[in-house]
Write a structure and sequence with these properties.
Distance between the termini: 75 Å
Low-confidence stretches: 1-17
Radius of gyration: 28 Å
Shape: elongated
Structural class: mainly alpha
Largest sheet: 2 strands, antiparallel
Number of helices: 24
Helix content: 55-70%
Length: about 475
């Protein structure tokens, strides 16, 4: 299961993903399963003879598995497929799929497997797909079946559209579960699938959310690396690139650069960002991508890598040397509102000066309230699932400023449920969140905030 893949011909980044690199996973059970003694004699039949059953034990005893498969590979795989498709016992299926997995790691074994499946009169992908639709699913069998399906997809064995969609959805849900071992195994499978251009558009809508969620929060570098690697593979498809406009993954990968310490992770992050600027089909798309990157300090990160010589990898240096001048050009021509918009849509809010600038809110309130309330809705979403208390406090503050300068926006906050949420946050555990919620609540409930502000100022002067 360890091999080297690249998204397309001519790409320079390569990745070797071995199960051994992923830390503890369910596949660690394989060693114990190989020692299992399974009695297949009760399964003997007219097309599964005693000689057929005997071949299942000979692979592990062979002096050379390569020579054994060259001579008897088709026979072995035909028997294994027949046995696997005729049993429902988890222990038996686990042994059989482990044996198939081991045999398929031998060079030039796939043609033998396909011929064996043909002789068993079973569509190869059908052997392993059924488990993804069963209610009772063994975790070991699930991930081994996923690995088998990926091997077959890479061998140009097609899954019917409906089955391909079910498989994509399973990978997506497993990635989003964030159960470390399962998540990393699913990411490794997805990374291999996306090495083929054919599958990128089919898998993109299912997996992009899960990949985006892993980037900033997953503590294991390997999971972050695999997630960004998948995004990088997807970025080779122009149609996928068009759908990444305004997607939070661009800003989150940019933000990840600020804390990255591993060279391989920096390499794939920079390659992804560079790809977006190179593959975007029009100047407006390039500008939006650049704005998202700049809002999360990707320009400063790339400049820092070059100045401090943080990494020595030639690809890292080349990508930084590409990004710095390109992002600098966009930065010099970028408006304050464009930077604010990118920050809000990314969900990674910081206490930059614009949040507390009366002039910014006064000059840009029409832009902020426009586009069907896009930015307001993004801020409201942060009330529901804030990445941090600081981001929550900033979102509450900005919603208060929104209704302060655009009183008609109170109706939208009411519709979105934000008014009640803000009021409820006055009892939040964090002091900064409580303070911003109190001030924002006053702005939401007060008809004339400016008049009230003047009265409060005069009252304070009188008491002084």
């Amino acid at each position: 299961w360890s091999n080297t893949v690249g998204p397309c011909s001519g790409s320079t980044i390569m990745a070797t993903v071995s199960v051994d690199l992923l830390g503890p996973t369910v596949l660690d059970q394989a060693s114990a399963i190989r020692q299992t003694v399974v009695d297949f004699r009760p399964m003997e039949s007219t097309d599964l003879t005693r000689e057929d059953i005997a071949v299942t034990t000979e692979f592990y005893r062979a002096v050379s598995t390569t020579d054994f498969l060259a001579a008897r590979g088709v026979h072995l795989f035909r028997v294994l497929v027949r046995l696997y498709t005729r049993t429902r016992k988890v222990e038996t299926m686990s042994y059989l799929i482990t044996l198939m997995d081991d045999a398929l790691q031998v060079e030039n074994s796939m043609p033998k497997f396909l011929e064996g499946a043909a002789q068993a009169k079973v569509r190869p992908t059908e052997i392993f797909f059924g488990i993804f639709e069963n209610q009772e699913r063994d975790n070991y069998l699930l991930h081994q079946s996923a690995r088998m399906l990926v091997r077959l997809l890479l061998a140009n064995e097609a899954l019917p559209p409906r089955e391909l969609r079910v498989f994509a959805q399973w990978l997506a849900s497993t990635i989003q579960s964030k159960e470390q071992g399962n998540c990393e195994l699913a990411l490794a499978s997805l990374q291999k699938v996306l090495s083929r251009f054919t599958y990128r558009q089919e898998f993109f809508p299912h997996v992009v959310l899960g990949l985006t969620e892993i980037v900033p929060v997953e503590t294991r570098v390997q999971a972050q690396y695999l997630a960004v690697f998948c995004l990088w593979e997807l970025s080779y498809d122009p149609q996928v690139v068009a759908q990444l406009l305004d997607a939070p993954c661009v800003a989150k990968v940019s933000a990840l650069l600020r804390t990255v310490r591993k060279e391989k992770l920096a390499r794939v992050c920079l390659a992804f960002l560079r790809n977006l600027l190179e593959k975007a089909e029009d100047s407006d798309a390039k500008r939006k991508f650049a704005t998202a990157m700049i809002s999360q300090k990707a320009l400063q990160s790339a400049e820092g890598f070059l100045k401090q010589k943080t990494f020595i990898d030639e690809e890292v240096i080349a990508d930084c040397e590409f990004l710095v001048p390109h992002l600098t050009t966009y930065f010099e021509n970028m408006s304050t509102f464009e930077e604010y918009r990118a920050e809000v849509l990314s969900g990674n809010l910081e206490w930059s000066p614009v949040h507390r600038s009366d002039r910014f809110w006064r000059d840009n309130i029409n832009n902020i309230s426009g586009n069907n309330g896009e930015l307001v809705k993004a801020l409201v979403r942060l009330l529901e699932t804030p990445p941090s208390y600081e981001i929550l406090a900033i979102a509450v503050h900005d919603l208060g400023e929104y209704v302060r300068y655009y009183p008609r926006g109170k109706a939208l906050l009411e519709t979105l449920g934000a008014k009640a949420a803000i009021v409820g946050l006055m009892e939040h555990a964090d002091a900064a969140v409580r303070y911003e919620a109190l001030v924002a609540t006053q702005k939401v409930l007060t008809q004339n905030w400016e008049y009230l502000g003047q009265k409060l100022a005069k009252a304070q002067e009188g008491s002084a």
